[in-house]
Design goal:
Elements lengths: L4 E9 L3 H10 L6 E6 L7 E3 L2 E3 L2 E10 L3 H12 L8 E7 L17
Helix pairs in contact: 1-2
Length: about 110
């Protein structure tokens, strides 16, 4: 029987996704993918309700088991959440179908 999986999406200011992934690994994540992008707001820093918005953004995507989701999201946002310089937003989406993901124990140590 296939285990329920989710994808965590963490959107933050550029440069913080790598550090957020380090926190996620400490909490049990096996890996993630970082995509670099730009906000649709503008090409310059702007103030919005007193918050400086940066145009460069990172998106960290982590596929995890449903039971890992809350721990991973809390690990990431506790250091890089919306009230920090990272301005990180975090949410998850259920994965209905997937191919190629394995959550079996790794037979060898993974470098961190």
């Amino acid at each position: 029987m296939e285990k329920n999986k989710e994808v965590i999406l963490f959107v933050c200011n550029h440069g913080f996704a790598y550090d957020a992934m380090t926190e996620a690994r400490k909490a049990g994540a096996r890996g993630g993918t970082i995509i670099h992008g730009r906000s649709s707001i503008s090409t310059e820093k702007e103030k919005f309700f007193g918050i400086t918005l940066h145009p460069e953004k990172d998106i960290l995507m982590i596929v995890c088991l449903e039971e890992q989701k809350e721990v991973l999201m809390k690990a990431i946002t506790s250091k890089y959440g919306v009230t920090t310089e990272a301005r990180g937003l975090c949410f998850s989406i259920k994965i209905e179908d997937s191919i190629g993901f394995s959550f079996d124990p790794i037979p060898f140590p993974v470098e961190k």
